Request: fold
Amino acid sequence: MAALLRACLVSSLIAGMVVLGACTKSSKANGPSPAAAIQPPVPDASPGPGTVVVVFTARLTSLGSAVDGRCFSPSLAVTRPGVWRCMVGNQIHDPCFEDSAPGEVACVADPRQPDKAAFIRFGESLQQVTPFPAAPVPHVWAMETAEGVLCTFLQGATGAVNGERLNYGCADKSSLIGDPRQGPVWTASRVVLTGGLPLLGTPVAVTEVRLAKVWQ
Reply:
């Protein structure tokens, strides 16, 4: 009788251990592990807004406002085919885009305001113009800084600052030297000159500016 009682107790104990083990396994399978529960959130690695690069076109209509002039050279500001340096009287317009009506160019001073273009009827003048060799890299005509300041290419002779050409004049009276540096966000070197160009070899403080938009 005693032996039968001990056998029953052992069987009950083994059955209880089996049930406990099954419950523990089920809990591990269905619930999160302690390590997963304390994992830190993944940081947002998405980059900020990059620089917008625009190949400018001026598909505009003069609506009869075009005036007679002549185009005498490829553009110095925009180095690609179909963009010219033109004149009306003694006034030079550059860049002037051949994206307008046949026989006319649209000359734009501010790429943000194409509606203020000046239209020129160039007549036979373009037949005498020899195009420049194609530029290996499109030239930047204008840039808008992250602060909203417009800077445009300085045509003709300018000067040098810190060994680099004074390339762009800005609406806030500052200047950009050299060429902009490309990347997801373009940057440029900004200088503020007072009293004209510095003497050769005189260092000038430079700040880096981020560019929101560039036009070619």
